[in-house]
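Good day; I would like, with your permission, to put a structural problem before you. What I wish to show you is a protein chain and, alongside it, a tokenised description of its three-dimensional fold. Thank you for your consideration; the sequence and its tokens are set out here:
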Amino acid sequence: MDAATMPSRRSKREAFGSRNVFILSAIGSAVGLGNIWRFPYVAYEGGGGAFLIPYLCALLTAGIPLLFFDYAIGHRFRGSAPLAFRRMHRAAEPLGWWQVLICVVIAAYYAVIIAWAAMYTWFSAQLSWGPGNEEAFFGVDFLQSENVADVGLSTTFVPQVGIPLAVVWVCVVVIMALGVKRGIGLANTVLMPLLTVMFAILVVQSLFLPGAMDGLNAFFTPNWQALADPAVWASAYGHIFFSLSVAFGIMVTYSSYLKRRTDLTGSGLVVGFANSGFEILAGIGVFAALGFMAQAQGAEVAGVASSGIGLAFVAFPTIVSQATGGSIIGVLFFGALVFAGVTSMISILEVIVAALQDKLGWGRVRTTLTVTIPLALISMALFSTTTALTVLDTTDAFVNAFGIMAVALVAVIVVAWLLHRLPQLQEHLNRRSSFRVGILWRLLVAVLAPLVLGYLFVTGLIENIAEPYSGYPIWFLGVFGWGMVVALVVLAILLSLVPWSRRSHAKDDPEYDEFLVEERYEPDAETGAVHLPAAQKGAGA
């Protein structure tokens, strides 16, 4: 019997060991670098304590509803993002591949930030940068950065970045190859408690620094006038979309690994509020430390507050240099960045691995190596060179503003308005959850989410067309900005045209068929879409 006539053998779909492991993994995905280095500054700029009002509104009216939306799609259609959308309707498959390709881009640069944080954990123990030299150490000594406007795209290798970057990739490849239960689930079960303990210690230590109360006053003192600024509300919604890992395939993929009878909305509430709790904790720790830094420099907190890479790799090393026991603060802070980065990165990679595994019907190890080895090589080529910082800055800005935001907008419109699937997804959520959703949930997903996402997308589009991002050359933005955004859409369509392997989970999947029988759903023989039986069609209205 030749290979062509042999019966296909399909590996059984993996699953999380328990709901608690799923919750830890979902929190691990949501709690990432942005929680630590982005939220505190966004909140501070958005009115301090007053920002908590638009933030909580965004969480309750957009973040958690879209989290439920992703959970329902992944759990109901039992597949990675492309397979789940394909099972919903064949024409929707490109949406899944669009999300997968966004994760490809994010994974490539996310790894290098973890590598930087790992090196700075070591640097903190020795105070390698020297007092007063923190900014120059990061840009010149460590990254050896060049200005892309002057020198173009560099191929000069930076060993102190490239070597730890390779180590990061080896670690995440091992975790991914071990699978959902023994790899991803176990890693999150270990790393999330460690991350929480480390950050709690960091916060407590920061609170006892001189000037900490000045920082907390700056962080929490409400500026009520900021609530009248639409940009503050847009900032709150924009942050929530990114913070909860919604709309780019992660939660769709993770929820597909849940057992059939799982409390979906209850899990979503735990994940949403745990993520926000960690963000507020991060804000307390970061601004307590910034208050100390301001007092030590005789400056206002506003003069030292920053976000992103500047906060992590310039401001915090300055705090480490000036504080008593600063090395401990540095090790805890950068160690927390490493752990938060790893738990988020494995969730990003799982979107890609699961998609190819479903499409091709390959085993776990083969698929993992096929995905991660080329991706690691691309990551090394782009982000271990002297122009890594400018490439990262541009890629991150465009994939967030015109990748994640765009696919979220299109996905909500397609599912809610073109395919009319929200009643079906609502019924699926309510059938197994402790917290029931109703027409309000459908309105939030179908009306409010598209309006907010559309506003954020159009606003970002106008700003970037009016003025080149960060003053970078047009050719550079054309390759790593606009060109990348367009390429993601084109490639997503092309990947959806590739035939599914007869070994794939899309072909004659006994597990999925058994699920449909148990749930009493009916497949459409012509389109492959699955609809509610006639007796249930009005259940969610």
About this structure: The beta strands are 522-523, 530-531. The two ends are 53 Å apart (CA to CA). The first helix runs from residue 19 to 30.
